[in-house]
Specification:
Strand order of the largest sheet: 1-4-9-6-7
Radius of gyration: 15 Å
Helix content: under 10%
Strand content: 35-45%
Oligomer: single chain
CATH architecture: Sandwich
Largest sheet: 5 strands, mixed
Number of strands: 10
């Protein structure tokens, strides 16, 4: 099955159009797709926020690719405690797959993802 794509949030500023209206600065979180896993389009410099909305700790995994020095470094089973939020920064080198996507997954749908390009 195809991975489920995460829609990126648009960051405002440093000089947003005024007045800043309700919800303009909000992030959109999407539940992890445990069965199909998730992905987002790599934009060169991205931030992924993982929010564990559950009552137990859950893990996330990020799949790397070889960089220009042939190094890989998957982040596997990184534990996020109940109600905790973790943030990860992705550059294309070492993370962007051949299809242009960055692969992420979580072990439970209580983990919500939000992504924004820098």
């Amino acid at each position: 099955m195809a991975r489920t794509s995460i829609t990126k949030s648009t960051l405002q500023g440093p000089y947003p159009t005024l007045p800043v209206t309700a919800n303009l600065l909000d992030l959109t979180f999407e539940a992890a797709d445990v069965a199909n896993k998730n992905q987002f389009a790599g934009a060169g410099d991205d931030i992924l926020v993982a929010w564990n909305t559950g009552a137990s700790a859950y893990t996330v995994t990020f799949t790397s690719v070889a960089d220009d020095k042939k190094r890989t470094g998957d982040v596997t089973t990184y534990s996020i405690g109940a109600s905790e939020i973790a943030a990860f920064r992705f550059k294309d080198a070492g993370w962007k797959q051949s299809d242009g996507k960055i692969y992420v997954e979580a072990e439970n749908a209580a983990v919500k993802f939000a992504v924004m390009a820098l």
